[in-house]
Amino acid sequence: MNVPSAKTAISRRSFILSASAAAGGGLVLGFHVPAAGAATTQAQPWKTAVEGTEINAWLTINPDGTTTIRVPHTEMGQGGMTSVALMIAEELNVPWESVHAVFADPNRHIRNNEEYKVMTTHGSQLVMLQHPHIMQAGASARERLKQAAAEAWGVERSEVAAEQGVLSAGSNNAPYADFASAAAAVTLEVEPEIKSPSEWWLLGGEIARLDVPLKVNGSAAYALDTKLPDMVYAAVKSCPVPFGRLASYDADAVKDRPGIVAVIELKAVEGARGMPDMQNGIAVVADSWYRAKTALDLMPIVWDLGENGTISYDDMRAKMAAILDEEGTVTNEVGDDPRALIEASDKIVTAEYERPFEAHVRMEPVNATVSVTDERIDVWSPTQDQSAALRYAADQAGRSTDDVYVHTVFLGGGFGGGGGGNTAVTRQATELSKQLGRPVKVVWSREEDIIQGKHRPPSMARLTAALGDDGLPTAIHTRAAWVTMDGAGRVGPAGSSDYVIYNMPYIIPSRRHEAHTVTGHIPTATHRAPGANQNGFMVEVFVDELAEAGGWDPLDWRLRMTEGLDDWQLVLTTLKDKSGYRTNLPQGEGMGVAAVACHGTIAACSAHVSVSRRGQLFIEEIHVVVDSGHVINRLAAREQLEGSVCYELSHALMGGLEIRNGQVQNTNFHNYSLLRIDEMPEVHCHFALSGGSKWGGIGEPAGPPTPPAIANAIYAATGKRLRSTPFNKYDLRA
Length: 734
Prior knowledge:
Radius of gyration: 27 Å
Number of strands: 29
Structural class: alpha+beta
Largest sheet: 7 strands, mixed
C-alpha cells in the first residue's frame, strides 16, 4: 500500500498560504496581482462587523471616512462584489480606496420585505437589470448627505457639492462622516436620477476585482472551508436513476468503522421534483469526510431504479428525431407560409443539428454546512441566491425564516442551476443537523455531483431554407426539440427550445419556427447562456451552409442579412476589422465566424484553426466582439468574455454526458473532460458599444458563438461539416 509522505500531504491551499508566509506576506507568482490602494474586502466578508453610521441598507460611513458597501449578490468569480461596490461608489462619489465591501444579510432582506430588491445572481442580470436601484442607493445617500450639510450651513442643497468624500459650499467643507448621522434621518421628497454614462468618473475603466488578492493568497473562504465546533461530516448517495427509490441498505456493515457517527436515510417528499428537493437516499455521518465517504462506498445498498432504469440517450435522441417530423408549437411566423415556398423551390438547403446533455461540474464540489439549534439556524451554502437557501433551510427544518441566517460565501463557480447550493445539498445538511443536533457539513463526491446534477438539456433541430436567384434565403422553416425534466418548455427565464432560433436577426421574407419539448427523467436546469448555447450553434452553422450554397462569403452574408440593424452592423464590421477574417488561407487552415444575441448583448466570434494531416485540431486564436451597450468595468468584462469562451469550448470539443440504464455514465474528469490550461487558445476581446438605453449582460454572451465559429473554421480547413458536439468524435484526418 502506498502511503503519502509528510512532504506530499499538503493541499494546494496550504501551499499557497505557507508560501505567502515564507515570502513575508507577499506571494510572488507569474501573473498580475492587483496593486494596493484600491477598495478592499475580507476573506470572510459575512463576518465583518459593519461600523459607522448607516445611511441606507446599502452602505455605512465610518468616522475615518471608510465607506462600507453591503453587496446583496454573490461573488462566483464574475466580479459581482466589485460591480456593486463600483456602482454605489460612482454615485456616492467617494475615493475608491476608501471603499470596503461586505456581503449583505439575507435574513434582513427577507424580514424587511426584500429590502435589497433581489438577491439572486444569474443570467448576466446583475448590472444589466439591477444597476438602476443599486446606483440609486448611492445617489440617494449622496443627496441626503448634501441635504444634511445644506441645513447645517443654511444654504440650498443645490449649492452643496459632494466629491470624493467631501461636502463643500462656499467656505464650508467637511468630510461625509461629519454629516452621516444627520443624513440618516433625512427623507428626500424625490429620489435623485442616476448618472448617465457620460457623467461617470469611476465606471467604464479597468478596475481590479476585490476578490482576486484573497484568491491569490489562498485566504478566500468558500462554503467548503466552513468549520464549526462539534461539526461532523456527511457523505451522501441518492438513487443513480433520478427519483428512483432506496430499496435497502445494511448500516450494520459499517456502523463500527472508525469515526462513524450515524447512518441516516434521507426521504423525498412525494411529488417534489424541483432543483433543491431531496431525493431518496442515504447519508453516512462521521468525524471526517474521508471516513464518511469510505464507509458509504463499502455499505451494501440496493436501489429500486424504477421505470426509467432502462432508458439510454439513444432513446432520447430517437424521440427528438421522430418529433421533428411533426408540427410543433409555432412561436414565430413572418410573411407567407415558408413551407409552401420551400416545396416549390428548386434550390433547398436543409440540415439537422444536435447538442447533448452537459454538466455544470463547478470547481467547488457541491456542499453545504448547516447548524440547527433551538435558537437559530445557520447556513453556509454556495448558492446563487442566498435568500433561496434561507427559505430551503427554514422549510426543511419547519422553522420561521426569521430564525435562519445564511452566511454568503465566495462561490467556486456558478454557471446556472442556481449554483451548487441550489441542489438538494442544502436541505440534506439541514435535515441531518436537525436530527443530530449538531453542525453538519455535507459534501458530494464528484460522481454524486454529476449523477445528481441538474444538467443542460439535449437538443436537436432541423433547419430548411429556400434560396433565391441572388443566393440569399427567401424562406426558412425551423423546428427544434429538446428533452427536459417532465417536458418543461423552458428552463429558466431565457432558456427554451426555440430561443435564438425563433428570433434570429437575419431578415428573411418568410419564416416559421416550431418548438417541441420531449419529456425526460434527467433533471435539467439553466446552464450558462441557456438555450442560446445549444441553438446558437445550430443557427450559425446552418448560416454558413446557406452562405456556401448561395455563393456568399460567410461574413459578408451576415452583413447583408442584417442591413438596417445598426448594432449588428457595428459588431460584424468590428469583427471583420479586428480579426482580419479571410477565406484564402493555406490548406489545413481555416477561419470561421458566428454571431449570437442573448441576454441583451450581441456577440460575434471569429476562430482561426489548423488541422494536421493526422486530424489534430489546433485553435490558433479567437476574436470576440460584443455590444452590451455599456460596460462598467472593462477588465472584469474581458475576464467574463474569456471565461465564457473557455466554458463553451469544453462542451464543444470534448463534452457530452452519456446516459445508459437511466443514469449518467461519465461521472468524473477521466471520462467527462474539460479544457486544460495548455489547450486554451489566445482570446482577443473587443467592445463595439452602441450605448444609449441598451444595457446587456456580459457573463454569458461570448460562449454561444464560439462553437459554431470553430465548426465553421474546421469546415474551411478540412471541408468536413460538423453538425453536432463534441467535435472530438469526428475524424478530421485529410
